[in-house]
Amino acid sequence: MRTEKTTFKWVIFIIAVMGVTIAAYHSVWTLDYVWDDRQLFIDSPDLRNPTNILESITTPVLSGTTYFRPLPLLTFIAEFSLFGPNATISHLINLLIHLVTSLLVIACAWKLLNAQIYERRLSGSIVSGVIYALHPALIEPIAWVSGRFDLMVAMFSAAAIAVAVYTKGLIRIVISCLFFMLAAFSKEMAATLPAIIMIMFWVASEGSDDFKYKNIARFVFEHWRFAISLVVTGVAYLYLRHWSLNGAVYHINVARIFEDSYDQIAYIGNTIVFYIKMTVWPFSNINPMHYFSMDMDAKSYIVAAIGWGFVFASLFARGNIYSRYKAYVVSYFISLLPVINVIPLTIGDNIGHERFLCLPLVLFSLLLGQVVLDLLDLGGKKRFFVLGALPAIVLLSILNITVTVPLWSNNIILWKWAFDKNEEDPYVQYSLISALVQQREFVLAEKIVNQVEATGQINNRLGVSIGFLKVRQQKYDEAKAIVRDSLNKVNITLPHTALSEEQLASGKYHLDERSRYLDVWFARSAFTVLSEANLGMRNFQKAKHQADIMIFYQNEYPPAHFLRALALYGLGDYEAADISYSKAEQLIVEHGKAELYELRRQFLSQVCEKNNKCLKQIDK
After folding, report:
1. pLDDT for 209
2. Do 217 and 270 fall into the same domain?
């Protein structure tokens, strides 16, 4: 009878947690592809129609990076082969992954609270699951399709921890290592997982009341086979990564390397504070970008001191009460190591991103399950306060999710929201203006440009998005001048300049892949504006050359081949034009082909005039 009641309670609580989460995210299936989704899924066929699956999943998902994430890419290939690019399906899969991770958090909490009586274990486990399932910092990876990388690394990491604490012997070693490898194949964030697994394994085996580093070291030594297996798995992953990326292990943003080591340490301290704040109280700072000036001031140093002070206190503080939490706190900080800017990874001008908390929040949620149980033991008014505060926080989280998810509906809404929060961020400015121009919202785009110009702090790269606006307004000379000025002012290497015009046109060039740097998007976009402007001015030879440059920077970019086709039609080379047009048609998503055909027809109607050979192309 007891077993039946136990099972019934578990089922009811789990259904409630999953149901509330699904209800909170009820609008997620109405969202479109936004941000990098277009470059990943719309502009490139590598995932939509791969000719070589192994190459498609091992090639960095963004040009110029060292992202090695074959497993999520494989899920996209499977998804698109079954359903095609469908934003609703993509978002539902992301939500499903999150729900699975939330269940794994509940399972881990149940085992880690094994010293508690049944009712307390159940309460603590459900608290951990609810905190994770409804944490507002996880809105971004759920509402943004490209956040699947972070969702999957968290899911497989939680699975690895669950296997480590539930199973024994060879099964523990084999399956935990398997999930560790799957987590690493999902995202580089899994780099610290072996240490986290061993600490959580220690908590499940020994309890968390006597955390000492020497106790952890002794425990690892006692389970050396398991520890070495995890390390060997990590080495195997690094070898596969090295092999796939031709030697590159990670990429850095040299612009984020400080000349003064004190500034670098301060920046790390500020990053720590950012992630702690987003973990503990994220409600007031949710948005896609978190702009942070590289110019350190007195406030930055003070915040850094607070961050570093909190870390050292957390790692070395003692006490009977804190001892039972320390394993979780240490694991949380270990999980943050890849993203606290120790290595200056390339995340724009942002101090961090919310999606990077997918894995750390697993540890934070497990911690809160234990903390809440201890707070409930206080009795009296304190117990009443806890019982009242917890539902209030859950309700606040649900409201936050309900309000925030629709802000990811499309690129205009997304970047307008980001602009309101980070008006000075050049990337946000560029993205908002580009989104408005793409949707032909020229008046609003002009208003944003004027608003940015009024600040007197215009980033050189912003000229590209302004150029897009001018070219769509048919102000071709102005567009070209703005983009040329932007290219001259931005201090970047343009590797295409090492090639002749004939080499670019032939497509036969062999440059080091690493020369296709992190400014690919900027260079490609700049020459898109120039090509479109020259097409409008009927400078077809120049337009073709600039389209060739676009192809150099992103060979499978549909607009590049389309603009090249239009330039060739203008030059009267109809056979070559048809080949380029066919290439663009092959690369573009199915629902974009009708628009492509109509744009081609309009262009030919304008340029053909009385040329019968040209006129015949219109009806092809």
Report:
1. 84
2. yes
Kindly state whether residues 345 and 436 are assigned to the same domain: no
Q: Does this model's pTM top 0.90?
A: yes
Q: State how far the Cα of 234 lies from the Cα of 249, in Å rounded to an integer.
A: 13
Q: Which residues contact 475 (CB under 8 A, 6 or more apart)?
A: none
Number of other residues whose CB lies within 10 A of the CB of residue 259: 6
pLDDT reported for residue 256: 65
- Among residues 137, 564, 596, 128, the alpha carbon closest in space to that of 365 is found at 128
**Stretch among 45-59, 280-294, 386-400, 519-533 having the lowest mean pLDDT:** 45-59
- Give, as one character, the DSSP assignment of residue 136: G
**CATH number of the domain that 612 lies in?**
1.25.40.10
CA 528 to chain centre: 25
Q: Are 339 and 189 in contact (CB under 8 A)?
A: yes
Residue 190 corresponds to which amino acid? A
Q: Which domain holds residue 340?
A: 2-406
User: Domain check: are 336 and 460 in the same one?
Assistant: no
pLDDT of residue 515: 44
Report how far residue 99's alpha carbon sits from residue 95's, in angstroms, rounded to the nearest whole number: 6
Tell me what percent of the residues of the chain surpass a pLDDT of 90. 59
Token pair belonging to 500: 């002749």
Run of H or E including 98: helix 87-112
Pair 462, 387 in one domain: no
User: How many domains would you assign to the chain?
Assistant: 2
Same domain, 391 and 448: no
